[in-house]
Amino acid sequence: MTACHRRDVLRSMVAACMLGPSMAFAAEQEAFPSKPIHMIVPFAPGGSTDVLTRLIGAQLSERLKQPVTVENRTGASGNIGADYVAKSSPDGYTLIMGSIGTHATNPLIYRNMPYDPVTDFAPIALAGEVTLVLVVHPDLKVQSVKELVQLLKGSPGSISYASGGVGASQHLAAELFKYSTQTSMQHVPYKGSAGALVDLVGGRVPVMFADLPLVLPHIRSGALRALAVCDPVRNAVIPEVVTMQEAGIADYVATAWYALFAPAKTPANRLHLLQSNVSAILHAPKTSKAIQDIGAKPGDAVGEKLRKFQLDEIARWKTVVKVAGISMDN
Q1: R_g over Cα of the chain
Q2: How many CA atoms lie less than 13 Å away from 253 in the CB half-sphere?
């Protein structure tokens, strides 16, 4: 290689090095969003995750002037959908409505996780916290939590309860109840809450710690009997139903929560745009009322506040998972 040739090569290399950062900068500065945003629901249609995602997605589409599509990618207690987003391009166009399972407790349950719920995601906003309510089929002749506890102690392991899957909020709430009351029930996991509801209303599984939005119409129709809510205070939608603590289960609190995440390394400017818009949606009176009307409350944790909330939840449920011996092989 001649001296002139070497100089030409060096010039090309320097130019490439200078061009690389400028191209990256240009990509970060380009208009966002300029195409549809894809929101993944890692559970089956019809559940609280799905309802909240579609509600927020429609409002986000109006604000950003771009279509927001929702896709249900189910399986492995939400891990399949979450893994898909974790490995998606970090460009702000693929998001996930995560849950207590996908982004807090699954790592405590599954031996081999395909993703890290903390380091593989960037937090956008806590979409909502959903009241869990202990409901029974009317054929189960109990009128209160106290009577259910007596029945379970009199017939250990003879009663079954439904959940939306291993590690789902309904599963964890039931295990916390068993731990708190020193009782036993058989777990019947489904691929999503909607499927569990079918058998619950049909009387094939008599007990469930269910998301209030899912079972509210059936409570009102008399198809299901509500024994207690799992919040620390009564819910305004069903104020006649006592809290678990009022029913005699001291310090019992369990809620379902759903939060929006992007893949890690999503550009900060895009992340901030999503955070500010989702936060505005959740605080808008119209959206807030719609969320409250289904028995939930809008979230108020955005960005790093959501991250702290997520880490606190991981720590809070670690003991319950360990005591209950909840584990899954992949």
Answers
A1: 23
A2: 9
Tell me the one-letter amino acid at 291.
Answer: I
E strand spans, the chain: 37-41, 68-72, 94-99, 121-136, 160-163, 186-189, 207-211, 225-229, 255-263, 296-298
Task: State how far the Cα of 132 lies from the Cα of 99, in Å rounded to an integer.
Answer: 14
What's the pLDDT score for residue 9?
A: 45
In a 10 Å sphere around its CB, with 0-12 CB exposed, 13-18 middle and 19+ buried, how is residue 114 labelled? Answer: middle
If phi > 0 it is left, if psi is from -120 to 50 it is alpha, else beta; for residue 92 that is left
Return d(Cα 122, Cα 268) in angstroms, integer.
10
d(CA 275, CA 283): 12
Are 94 and 45 members of one domain? yes
Q: Of residues 47 and 154, which shows the higher confidence score?
A: 154
Domain check: are 113 and 135 in the same one?
no
Quick one: tokens of 189?
């996991």
DSSP code for 101: I
CATH for 156: 3.40.190.10
What are the helix (H) ranges across 125-186? 145-154, 169-181
Spatial distance between the Cα atoms of 292 and 55, rounded to a whole number of angstroms: 12
**Domain hosting residue 163, numbered range:** 131-229
User: 134, 145 in Cβ contact below 8 A?
Assistant: yes
CA geometry: angle 261, 52, 168, nearest 5 deg? 70
Q: What are residue 238's phi and psi, to 5 degrees?
A: -130, 65
User: Given 181, 211, 229, which residue is the final one in a domain?
Assistant: 229
- pLDDT interval class at 22 (50, 70, 90): very low
- Strand 160-163 relative to strand 207-211, pairing: parallel
* Shared domain check, 92 and 75: yes
Q: What percent of the chain has pLDDT over 90?
A: 70
Three-class secondary structure of residue 153 per DSSP: helix
Nearest to 75 by CA among 167, 185, 160: 167
CA angle 266, 269, 270 (to 5 degrees): 55
Task: Assess contact for 267 and 89: CB atoms under 8 A.
Answer: no
Alpha-carbon span 282 to 59, nearest angstrom:
10
